[in-house]
Amino acid sequence: MKNKNINDDLKNLAMENDKDFDAYIEKAINRRIKKIAARTFIVMLAAVVAVIFCISPLMRLIFPDAVRMEKDGQQLLTLMRAYYETTMPWKEVISLEAESDGFGCYTLNMDVTDLRRQQYIGEVNVQMAMRLGKLSVKNDPEHLTVFETGKFYTENMDEVTDPDAMIEELEKLPESATIYISVSQKEASDVSTVMDRAGSMLWWLQVYEPENTFQAGVSTAMSASYGDRDTYRSQMTAAEIKQIYLENLGILRDNMDIWKDLNVCSNSTVYYQAPQVIDEAIAAAQADDSFMTVNYCLAGSKEKVLDYLRSADLAMLVVERVDAGGFGG
Fold first, then answer.
1. What integer pLDDT is reported at residue 228 of this predicted model?
2. Quick check: is 208 in a domain?
3. Which residues cross the membrane (predicted)?
4. Residue 291 CB coordination number (10 Å)
5. Do 200 and 273 fall within a single domain?
6. How many helices and strands (H and E) does the chain possess?
7. CB 324 within 8 A of CB 174
8. Orientation of helix 191-198 relative to helix 238-254, angle to 10°
9. Residue 144 lies in a domain
10. CB burial class (10 A; 0-12, 13-18, 19+) of residue 322?
11. Whole-angstrom Cα distance, residue 197 to residue 220?
């Protein structure tokens, strides 16, 4: 009987020891888990800090820094003004601000105007994303980055409205009307001749290069001024306009990797091989002293526009806009 009591006491003691041991093990495991969690958090925090303070600056060294480019001579504004001027009649980049999204990504907030529309200067109406040095359209609710085809005459057009019939319709407009019109001639003319005849009505012209499929353009007047090349554009000679044309093409060539995914367009064709067609345009312009045009854009009073059109040898006209009360009406 005595031995039985001793055995029971030993069993009870062992059970109590097991409970204490289990509690000890549980506490040890919890402490271990907390240490691992703390270490993991510290490692993750260090990784985030490394990414923010090391990788992001490294990305700015590897890829173009849009903010720095704008602070250093407004390089992106100059590039985008050259791009629009070369490829898009009537449109002009008025201003551009770059903001960093981190890790080599930027948003370009742009004010782009269409000279055919009522103009509101100072509004951000186009946003482009610049990711790892490549531009793409992020937000364009007014379609100001969209290429417009069918503006100028091409041989593969199915139907073309008779220019004389178009002129007859324009004659019915009130005398106070301002006409915005895209013109295609039957034959090429010297740019100097068109400039002399059109005067201040001429806003943009497409340079005629018969050996090239891509036909680039240049503005003969600007709404916003960033230096003498813009301020005195409307007073320049044809030779000076050609120099601006070549400068714009050079800007596009030198920054090709940034903008080439936007592509280029002339007449009814979009070109996805931007490096090739820009190089061809530069080579053609430098090959001789000629400077010719077939397609161009005019804006002026009804009287002046009609006087010009009646004396031109026209292939096609596209009326872009008519204002009854003058410019901006």
1. 86
2. yes
3. 41-63
4. 18
5. yes
6. 11, 11
7. yes
8. 120
9. no
10. middle
11. 13
Range of the domain at 114: 66-139
Number of domains in the chain: 3
Same domain, yes or no: 128 and 222: no
Same structural domain for residues 106 and 57? Answer: no
Q: What is the mean pLDDT of each run of 10 residues along the chain (329 residues)?
A: 57 56 64 74 61 53 81 93 96 95 93 88 92 95 94 88 94 96 97 97 97 95 89 94 98 96 91 92 94 98 97 96 70
Q: Can you tell me the distance from the alpha carbon of 216 to that of 249, in angstroms, rounded to the nearest whole number?
A: 9
Same domain, 4 and 102: no
Distances in whole angstroms, Cα of residue 77 to Cα of each of 224, 308, 315: 12, 35, 36
Residues 167 and 315 in one domain: yes
Same domain, 170 and 251: yes
Output the CA torsion sign for 165, 166, 170, 172.
Answer: positive
Same domain, 186 and 295: yes
Q: Write b or e for each residue in 95-115: b if 16 or more Cβ atoms lie within 10 A of its Cβ, otherwise e.
A: bbebebeeebebbbbbbbbbb
Quick check: 210 and 290 in contact, CB under 8 A? no
pLDDT recorded at residue 56: 52
Q: What is the pLDDT of residue 267?
A: 87
Tokens (6 digits) for 251: 């800007």
Q: Does 135 lie in the same domain as 11?
A: no
